Amino acid sequence: MHSVFVEVSVGEFLNTVNVDDDNQPPATKAFRFNVDLKSEPSMYSGICEGLENSLPDIKPRFAIKDTGRWPQASKHSATDPSASASGKKPDLGFYPCNPQALQEISIDVSEWPEKTCKSLGARLDYVAKPSWAWVDIPIEVKHNLKTAPFSQKEKEDWLPNNDEARKSRGQLADYTRQILAHQHRQFFFMIIFIRDHARLVRWDRVGAIVSKPFNYVKSPNILGRFVYQYANMTAAQRGFDPTAILATAEEIEILRSYVESVTNISDYVESYLKDVLRLHVHGWPIYKIELISGESKPEEGNTMGRKNARGGTKRRGGGAMTADQTKEDFKQHLLVGHALDYSRSPTGRGTKCFTAYDMMTHQAVLLKDTWRPVSAEIWTEGEVYERLHSKGVRYIATVLHCDDVGGTQPQQTLTQEWTRERHPNILRRNHHRLVFAEIGRPLHTYQCALEMAEAVYCALLAHQDA
Question: Composition bias, kind Polar residues: at what positions (predicted)?
Answer without folding.
Answer: 74-85
